[in-house]
Amino acid sequence: IPSAEIEALAPEVREHEPRLALDGGEDGLDCYRDILKEMPKLLGQGGAIIFECGMGQARDLSDMMRQAG
Question: For the whole model, what pTM was predicted?
Answer without folding.
Answer: 0.79
